[in-house]
Amino acid sequence: MKRFLSGKQLGNTVKNATPPRRRRGGRNVLVSGIVLGSVLAMSACGGGDTPDEGTKAAKDEPTVLDVGYSQGVGYLPTMVAQDEGIFTKHKLKVNLRVVQDVNAAIPGLGKSMHILGGTPGGLLVAKNAGLKVTAVSGCVEDVPSAPLNQVYGAPGYTSYKQFEGKNFGVPGLTGTSYTAVVTQMLTMGVDPKKVNFIVVNFADMYAQLQSGALQGVSTLDPFSAPFKEKKLPYLGDPNFLIANPLLTCTYLANPTWASENKDAINRFVTALREADTWIGANQQASNEILAKHAGLKPETIAQISMPSFTFDTGADLAKQILLWIPALRNAGVLKEDSADFTAKEVAFP
Fold it and tell me: How far apart are alpha carbons 141 and 163 in whole angstroms?
């Protein structure tokens, strides 16, 4: 029988989880948006080349990368690098694939996809299941000035206690969003077993809450915009009970493929860092790019805030990923006897 830690015990665990000191960019941009953990419609990888064939292109030809990503704001650097020719500048031909179920896509890494935008939770669950996957770069982190994991209630729902016996929408039951919400509930004395967690795509959460099918949701930007427009009850960001700051999404790859394509990975990460700089200098244009990729109106995008992007690699990245293990275990996402991975096992050097 799974035993959850009490709120007091969990609080002690969280206090003892000290996040690493991190180098910040010069730009202090407002955030919102996670996990992650989940995303929109999945499309098949096209083209005749297999991943290995694509990445073994001649030196005078661009390296082909098939990249799975989310239409959430956390992946804006990927969108900008594509649309503004930054990937091309670094001799990369990137084919973006929108992914709905990130965890289901992990087995395809190194086969139908080179790099996948995922979450620390998804990575750790997959590794415990014996799948070959590693993180090659950070993506976005949650900071108090720019909350990512945004919990909203239907009108009148202003407390987690009210969700007992009600329907609560989450992007998945094995990801970081769900884990953080359960962590918050346990800390507040709410029994998560009494809450009906329902898996819902971010794009559908607002409509289902409005219809009465849901009484609460864990969402992210840009899909939080209608909740803000209607001034629905905001119950905060539960991620900070786990760590502050907290890594919420990562770029994943097959470790064998990664070891054979270090140069391509380095160019990919360099392009993302340049895209981050471009976003800081071009806010309006960045909003338009996000609106195009997310299928939303630019005026809707203007109401959200930009995330704090991070592209750490190696040991620095691994430390942030491993911070999730206690919370994942306590939420029942990982078994209590799950493996304690080393830094080299979860992040590519």
Answer: 27
d(CA 16, CA 14): 5
**CA 226 – CA 153 distance, rounded (Å):** 13
pLDDT at 121: 92
Strands 92-98 and 216-219: unpaired
**pTM > 0.90:** no
Judging by DSSP bridges, how do beta strands 308-309 and 150-153 pair with one another? Answer: unpaired
How far is residue 251 from each of residues 32, 102, 160, measured CA to CA in Å?
18, 11, 32
Is the CATH code 3.40.190.10 the one for domain 33-143+245-346?
yes
Q: Are 333 and 174 in contact (CB under 8 A)?
A: yes
Q: Where are the domains of the chain?
A: 33-143+245-346
Edge-first strand listing for the sheet containing 196-199: 150-153, 216-219, 167-170, 196-199
Residue with tokens 């203007």, as numbered in its chain: 302
Q: Is the pLDDT of residue 166 over 80?
A: yes
More reliable by pLDDT, 225 or 253: 253
pLDDT score, position 36: 33
| Per-residue confidence band for 58, with pLDDT thresholds at 50, 70 and 90 | low
